[in-house]
């Protein structure tokens, strides 16, 4: 079946090819596939990843590199699978940047990193920060360059809102802008989500913060030894803290006091 809509995106060091064969899927792809990155209709050979959504009877079917990987009764229900497929393609192909699992926002011209593993509640915390006036960089990856600056990784947020399933959300739904330039790190806050725990956060050394970044990177240190220097540059000018936090709204109240930002 020929596609009725297709486009390509250059995302960092990867070329992404996207196609859909029904109007509903076209709208979803345009809205949620790296929405702030430019599209092109130019044919690209040997894309690093290609995805396609087809309508098969009453199901939308997602194929990644011609292999069917998911289906759903609604096209929007495939967005989490699409985002994860792009992450798996883009992050390992980074050449000059290194990724850390960290929600990332910008406040007052400086980046705030919230390192943590997947499913650790980073997205809900980032969404609440955006509602309070932060600029969006990412809910999953902080991309760090050789100078220690953080670059935006502008994928949609994936939030749960109390449900087991993840749902895509764009920064503009929180009335927040999306960052478009590298920014120096101002804060590194390693906050473990414990629903029944009170706010309990204390300063840590920059060496401890460096180890936290290394523990939360998907890159292999033996293959990327330059990461240590990159992350040292990132932590050098940052206020670093670690501890426990509870629900996102209360945690952001505490974060704003901690970093001296007035609502």
Could you provide a short overview of the structure?
The protein has helices at 23-32, 79-90, 122-131, 206-215, 227-236, 248-259; strands spanning 5-11, 14-20, 39-40, 49-56, 59-64, 67-72, 98-107, 110-115, 135-138, 141-144, 150-151, 157-159, 167-169, 185-193, 200-203, 239-245. It is an alpha+beta fold and 263 residues long. Strands 7, 8, 9, 10, 11, 14, 15 and 16 form an eight-stranded mixed β-sheet that branches. The chain has a six-stranded mixed β-sheet with strand order 3-1-2-4-5-6, covered by helices on one side.
Can you describe this structure?
With 263 residues, the chain is α+β, with helices and mostly antiparallel strands. The protein folds into 2 domains: 5-93, no CATH class; 98-259, Phosphoenolpyruvate Carboxykinase, domain 3 (Alpha-Beta Complex), CATH 3.90.228. It has helices at 23-32, 79-90, 122-131, 206-215, 227-236, 248-259; strands at 5-11, 14-20, 39-40, 49-56, 59-64, 67-72, 98-107, 110-115, 135-138, 141-144, 150-151, 157-159, 167-169, 185-193, 200-203, 239-245. The strands form 3 sheets. Strands 7, 8, 9, 10, 11, 14, 15 and 16 form an 8-stranded mixed sheet that branches. It has a 6-stranded mixed sheet with strand order 3-1-2-4-5-6, with helices on one face. A hairpin with a 2-residue loop joins strand 4 (49-56) and strand 5. The protein is globular.
């Amino acid at each position: 079946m020929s596609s009725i809509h297709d486009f390509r995106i250059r995302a960092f060091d990867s070329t992404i090819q996207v196609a859909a064969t029904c109007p509903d899927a076209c709208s979803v792809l345009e809205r949620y596939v790296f929405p702030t990155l430019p599209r092109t209709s130019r044919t690209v050979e040997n894309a690093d990843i290609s995805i396609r959504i087809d309508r098969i009877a009453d199901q939308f079917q997602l194929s990644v590199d011609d292999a069917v990987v998911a289906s759903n009764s609604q096209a929007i229900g495939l967005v989490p699978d699409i985002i994860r497929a792009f992450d798996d393609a883009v992050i390992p192909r980074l050449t000059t940047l290194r990724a850390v699992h960290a929600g990332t926002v910008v406040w007052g011209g400086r980046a705030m990193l919230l390192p943590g593993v997947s499913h650790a509640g980073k997205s809900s915390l980032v969404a609440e920060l955006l509602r309070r006036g932060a600029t969006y960089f990412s809910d999953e990856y902080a991309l760090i360059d050789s100078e220690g600056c953080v670059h935006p990784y502008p994928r949609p947020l994936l939030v749960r809102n109390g449900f087991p399933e993840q749902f895509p959300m764009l920064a503009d739904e929180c009335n927040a802008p999306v960052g478009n330039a590298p920014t120096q790190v101002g804060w590194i806050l390693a906050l473990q989500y414990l629903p029944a725990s009170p706010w309990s956060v204390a300063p840590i050394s920059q060496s401890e913060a460096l180890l936290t970044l290394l523990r939360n990177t998907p890159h292999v240190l033996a293959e990327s030894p330059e990461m240590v220097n990159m992350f040292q540059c990132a932590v050098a000018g940052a206020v670093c803290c670690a501890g426990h936090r509870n629900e996102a709204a209360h945690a952001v109240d505490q974060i704003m006091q901690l970093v001296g930002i007035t609502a």
